Amino acid sequence: MNPALADLLRSRAGIWRGLHCDHAAWAVVGSGFAELDASLPGGGWPLGTLAEIAIPAPGCGELRLLLPAIAGLSRAGRRIAWIAPPYRPYAPALSQAGVALTQLLTVNADKDHDIAWCAEKLLRSGGCGMVLLWPRRLDARQIRRLQLAAETGSALAVLFALPGQSYSGAVLRVAVRPSASGLAVDIVKARGSLRRASLMLSL
Amino acid sequence: MKIDTAQAVAALETSKGRPGLYAVSAATRQAGVEPGMSQSAAQALCPALSLLPRNPQAEKAALQQLAGIGLNFSPWVSLDRPDCLLIEIGSCLKLFGGSDRLEQDLRDACLAAGYSPVIAIAPTAPAAELLAGLGLEMQIGARAELRSALGPLPIAALALDGKTLGRLGNAGVRYLVDLWRLPRDGLARRYGSGLLQRLDGLLGLQPTALNAFHNPPAFAASCELPTELTRLEHFFPAIAQLAAAWAEFLKQRDAVALAVALDLHHYRRPPTRLKLSFRHGNRDVDHCLALLREKLERSPLPAPVIGVELLSDEIAPYQPAACSLFADEPAAETDSEWQATLDQLQNRLGHHALQRFAVAADHRPERAHQSNAAETETQTAAPPRPLWLLPAPEPLSGDSFTLLSPAERIESGWWDNQAVRRDYFIGQDRLGRKLWLFRELSGDRGWYLHGLFG
Predict the structure, then answer these.
(1) Is the Cβ pair A125, B369 closer than 8 Å?
(2) Does A106 touch chain B (CB under 8 A)?
(3) Helices then strands (H, E): number in chain A?
(4) pLDDT tens-place values along chain A, 203 residues long
(5) How many interface pairs between A and B have CB atoms less than 8 angstroms apart?
(6) B252: which residues sit within 8 A by CB, 6+ positions away?
(7) What three-state secondary structure class fits B427?
(8) H or E stretch including A175?
(9) How confident is the model over B131-189, as pLDDT tens digits?
(10) pLDDT tens-digit series, residues B385-422
(11) Which of A53, A60, A95 should one mutate to test binding to chain B, selecting the residue with the greatest count of B CBs within 10 A?
């Protein structure tokens, strides 16, 4: 686009540009996959947001999708909290992936309201860069509170949703499913972009 | 229990199977009742006399309270001798402006706490104990004056056994000065070396070793509410008041608390207790109150509250966070906030809810991951490991997966009876998930799922 035209469009507050956004508007953490970074508005996983990752079953590649971001944040000195994970996160594998283990913390909670409460506390504390949570059920109010907490602590909150669970309040929604050649990633919804993207990552 | 000593009261003690009066109040003494009298004789002399059994535990507690007062005057206070408190004042006379001023200040402090002390000052502890035991409020300044000052005291004050006392009396010894006139070797031969040691102790010729009393720091404060309250907002200010006193208590001692207990008292019901623990010692009022409020909001009250009590006896020295001289980044600030958040989580979810990650140097997959280990050991290069480990291996039928990798044999642990002999593979199931599976090399040779690559 003509730079003069772009400037003109930007100067008018009333003009909404659906498929474009200012990439410098918010902080991101690189996903570690060039194709994915190109499809995500802002060029990476956005910090200060609540993201939903829809998975057919636990262990379908969703952690490997996040692993480069986890490693990057942990080495940058930010903490990663795992709230109510379905299985035990395995330290040797995380160490192999270059994650600074001292920055990790698991929180064992059984009840859904405890899970939401812990996530909110940790996000709000400002000490966490990423909070991963595996709730069974969250209502719209809890989702909204988590979104606000993530903004307060400029952290990335990641919800894992199994089939049948869906959190429409999430700002970023990504669906993953394993396939023969790698991992199919669908960006269903992203703040700052109306574009739906489907891509295949080889993990 | 508070006793009004202005009334006619006496403490009763059973000694040698006979109840007798142990101590009497001044009003009782005026009626002619003396310690040692029998109960019936005392009641005949003073009909209004109220008799209470002696309570050794309350006496001990009172002495400990007095020892706490004594610690305001001297760093060395001893409760080793029965029924008396020894305070070393020689090293702090200058601070208090002489022995007269110190005695007056000490007396005022005791009177303010509700006790009327008998204070004797002497250069040796046994001499001061002897004088106070006889009710003589004397001040003996120099060791050279001890002989002449103690000389006129009756030998009965030495608390010798009855037989020795009788023999000394028969020999015409009435006062301590009489004993000092007798030759030492003869005295030791006739009455044993114990008597000689006792006399030497009085004069400071025989050293006496006594243990110093240390007040274990503990905080306890309670507040009674004007009426029965059920709503948290109504009785929480009382808790806030106690917490402020608690923080002040810790600050004065340069300490932090590791745990706090809050008791909510109810009418005719056992109190409700809420316990808080801090991962790192804490003395921050706001943090403590936030945790207490959190806890109170989630615990339903069994009954209206008529009183609150805050207790804290797990106390540790305060260790300020190390900060750099040229601190330009507020790292310590966020860290304390982070610790406060972890405190909140732990108090809500329990002690084992929070876990850290560490790698251990063990080939067995179950043991290579450690929770809450202090140190992380770096692992040597190993084939890829899964991100998820199942809590226990799950049996798997042989046709539900396809193998993607050659076998990795793990054979280890024969030394501690937890031997593992397995061939590990990476597989893929019908969903397309990458699995970490193994085949037992001994026993049933079955397939098991042990992890997921996530």
Answers:
(1) no
(2) yes
(3) 6, 11
(4) 678 887 887 777 666 665 555 555 568 888 888 888 888 888 889 888 999 999 988 888 889 899 999 999 998 888 999 999 999 898 888 888 888 888 899 999 888 889 999 999 999 988 889 999 998 888 889 999 999 999 998 999 999 998 888 777 788 899 998 887 788 899 888 877 767 788 888 87
(5) 143
(6) none
(7) strand
(8) strand A172-179
(9) 888 888 888 888 888 888 888 888 887 777 778 888 888 888 888 888 888 888 888 88
(10) 889 998 888 888 877 888 888 888 888 877 877 788 88
(11) A95
Helices (H), B34-92: 39-45, 56-70
Length of chain A: 203
What secondary structure letter does DSSP report for A102?
A: G
Residue A106 with chain B: CB contacts under 8 Å: 354-357, 371
Half-sphere exposure of B348 (CA within 13 A, CB side): 24
Angstroms from A190 CA to nearest CA on chain B: 23
Which A-chain residues 6-35 have CB contacts (< 8 A) with chain B? none
Tell which of A70, A83, A90 to mutate to test the B interface (max B CBs under 10 Å): A90
Contact B435, B449 (CB under 8 A): yes
Please say whether the beta carbons of B304 and B233 come within 8 A: no
Helix axes B125-133, B193-203, angle to 10 degrees: 100
Q: Are B372 and B393 in contact (CB under 8 A)?
A: no
In angstroms, the separation between the Cα of residue A76 and the nearest Cα of chain B is 14
Rounded CA separation A82/A85 (Å): 6
The C-alpha atoms of residue B294 and residue B287 are separated, in whole angstroms, by 11
List the structure tokens of B180: 């000092």
Q: In angstroms, rounded to a whole number, what is the distance separating the alpha carbons of residues B184 and B198? A: 12
B357:A104 CB<8 A: yes
Burial track B233-245 (b if 16+ CB lie within 10 A, e otherwise)? eebbebbeebbee
State the sign of the Cα–Cα–Cα–Cα dihedral B187, B189, B190, B194: positive
- The answer to whether the CB atoms of A179 and B432 lie below 8 A apart is yes
Side chain identity at residue A109, one-letter code: A
Whole-angstrom distance, CA of residue B83 vs CA of residue B286: 43
Judge: A94–B357 Cβ closer than 8 Å, yes or no: yes
Determine the distance in angstroms separating the CA of B291 from the nearest CA of chain A, rounded to an integer.
13
SS3 A147: helix
| Interface mutation target, options B347, B351, B357, chain A, most CBs of A under 10 Å | B357
DSSP classification of residue B131: H
Predicted-complex ipTM score: 0.84
H or E element, residue B437: strand B434-440
Interface of B with A (CB under 8 A): 334-335, 337-338, 340-341, 344-345, 348-349, 352-359, 365, 368-371, 376, 378-379, 382, 384-391, 431-434, 451-454
Q: Is B445 helix (H, G, I), strand (E, B) or coil?
A: coil
CA–CA dist A111, A134 (Å, integer):
11
